[in-house]
């Protein structure tokens, strides 16, 4: 029995580890040939090796126009076409709004926003030649609601949501669908910076999610990956310009842990 992505070629940015690796593995399990693009070349190669002969690792700097051109050329040379693009690479820096430097703001938006723009643009021609395709942009619940202390991340993820809708309208006549995924708190969603201990942050997020999310837990990368596989597949053929939320109910409404459950 074949997989949902048999015959498709997918390029995943930020695919070396975390959520990107989970999506690359899920796509391959569903029959796709997968290109793992990342600045962490060694880790990307390890991911591709673990997946097997249907995976290729390539260096990819999502903020660089030429790097995207080279990534598309490498994908076509290896597998002949491009059917799925996941704009997953992302970063975050936190500080109070009035203390956020312009340099910090630009670093985050360059990766999270400009990187998505460049990725989508680079995919148009090869997907058009392939007869259509699916672009999946990884946003966040922070692209749906506000949150203090991460103004650049919030700005970039809201931008991804808006760009997704605008580009979906333009590319629909080409048979290219464009959707965004908005994960809630997911383990390993953002990798630690060198020398940074994210354990206190992760523990805080875990406690916050247990308290306020109806499902009472953080998400698993595999759960987001399965949603991405749906959007990559023909099962989602009538879905474009939409946001798909996977957050355990976190943004469903106002949580009040002090109030008893009425049921």
Give the structure's gist in a few sentences.
Residues 191-195 and 258-263 have low confidence and may be disordered. It contains 7 helices and 7 strands.
Helix-strand blueprint:
Layout: E1 9-13, H1 18-29, E2 33-38, H2 41-51, E3 55-59, H3 65-79, E4 84-87, H4 102-129, E5 133-138, H5 151-171, E6 176-183, H6 199-212, H7 221-232, E7 243-246
Parallel strand pairs: 1-2, 1-4, 2-3, 4-5, 5-6, 6-7
What is the typical, i.e. mean, pLDDT?
91
User: Helix proportion of residues, in percent?
Assistant: 40-55%
Our count of helices gives 7
**CA radius of gyration:** 18 Å
Query: How do the SSEs run, as a string of H and E?
Result: EHEHEHEHEHEHHE
In CATH terms, the superfamily is NAD(P)-binding Rossmann-like Domain
Distance between the termini: 43 Å
Structure overview:
This protein is an alpha/beta fold and 263 residues long. The chain has one domain (9-246): Rossmann fold (3-Layer(aba) Sandwich). The chain is 43% helix and 14% strand. It has helices at residues 18-29, 41-51, 65-79, 102-129, 151-171, 199-212, 221-232, and strands at residues 9-13, 33-38, 55-59, 84-87, 133-138, 176-183, 243-246. Strands 3-2-1-4-5-6-7 form a 7-stranded parallel β-sheet, sandwiched between helices. Helix 1 (18-29) packs across helix 7, helix 3 packs parallel to helix 4 (102-129) and helix 4 (102-129) runs parallel beside helix 5. The chain is globular, with a radius of gyration of 18 Å. The termini are far apart.
């Amino acid at each position: 029995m074949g997989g949902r992505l048999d015959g498709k070629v997918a390029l995943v940015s930020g695919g070396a580890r975390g959520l990107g690796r989970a999506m690359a593995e899920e796509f391959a399990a569903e029959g796709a040939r997968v290109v793992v693009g990342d600045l962490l070349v060694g880790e990307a190669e390890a991911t591709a090796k673990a997946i097997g002969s249907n995976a290729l690792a390539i260096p990819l700097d999502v903020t660089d126009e030429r790097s995207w051109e080279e990534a598309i050329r490498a994908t076509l040379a290896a597998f002949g076409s491009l059917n799925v693009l996941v704009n997953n690479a992302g970063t975050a820096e936190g500080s109070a709004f009035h203390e956020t430097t312009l340099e910090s703001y630009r670093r985050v938006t360059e990766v999270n926003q400009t990187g998505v723009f460049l990725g989508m643009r680079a995919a148009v021609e090869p997907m058009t030649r392939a007869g259509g395709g699916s672009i999946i942009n990884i946003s966040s619940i922070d692209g749906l609601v506000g949150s203090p202390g991460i103004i650049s991340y919030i700005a970039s993820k809201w931008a991804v949501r808006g760009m997704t809708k605008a580009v979906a309208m333009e590319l629909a006549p080409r048979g290219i669908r464009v959707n965004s995924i908005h994960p809630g708190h997911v383990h390993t969603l953002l990798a630690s910076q060198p020398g940074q201990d994210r354990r206190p942050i992760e523990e805080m997020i875990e406690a916050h999610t247990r308290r306020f999310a109806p499902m009472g837990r953080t998400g698993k990368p595999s759960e987001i990956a399965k949603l991405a596989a749906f959007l990559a597949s023909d099962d989602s053929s009538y879905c474009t310009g939409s946001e798909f939320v996977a957050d355990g109910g976190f943004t469903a409404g106002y949580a009040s842990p002090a109030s008893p459950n009425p049921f």
